[in-house]
Amino acid sequence: MxxxxxxxxxxxxxxxxxxxxxxxxxxxxxxPEGPVLEDFPDDxxxxxxxxxxxxxxxxxxxxxMDAEDQLVRAFRAEVDGLRNWYDEAVxxxxxxxxxxxxxxxEAVADFIAGFARGDEPDNPLTDVSxxxxxxxxxxxxxxxxxxxxxxxxxxxTDPVRLEExxxxxxxxxxxxxxxxxxxxxxxxxxxxxLGSALLVPRRQLHRFDRIERPTAGPxxxxxxxxxxxxxxxxxxxxxxxxxxxxxxxxx
Length: 251
Description:
Number of strands: 0
Distance between the termini: 21 Å
Helix content: 40-55%
Largest sheet: none
Number of domains: 2
Number of helices: 9
Order of helices and strands: HHHHHHHHH
Structural class: mainly alpha
Radius of gyration: 20 Å
């Protein structure tokens, strides 16, 4: 199947295309001999362009503090600002992929933030190593962001656009890069693997090569708002509540 990894039937929400794929698969069972290896003739349809830019409801603190603490505070504000959209996504889809750790999104964010500060937090998972728990938490974090943003009106399910949005326009991406750098400075094969490719895709590392981290004060606030990725994402002044939340026709 010439589709994105994790999409064996093609793009989500395209029932006609997915039905064609299933019919082609089931048709293979009618062949008199096997095994049968056959390519699906069509590529996955291109994702529709969203009606509005993807937006993160971010609130940045005004107090002056060191760069690391400022980044972590902005990260937690970003996570909190997406919570209503994530809850709406779970309500509509009746499932989530942001739960491999079994931790709430806020607990996942706090766990990752500990590494971004240079600490070594306690392992919240008893059945895996600390490094494995960090990797699982990073995947939960990305799933949380993607599910929340696709629940917004005009949200997209195109995986390329979602990846570009996450790594190019969120504070969470910068936090994961800080965690990656801390892992590179720690001994042990697991830490080195996390620092080399497991936390930040190599194809996205070029974004962070341009970042010059300020030390403190107003310059920091300006840099966090501006970011090395270009203009800051749009800011929702009033994130939706459970009682009044715009609906989007996103699968």
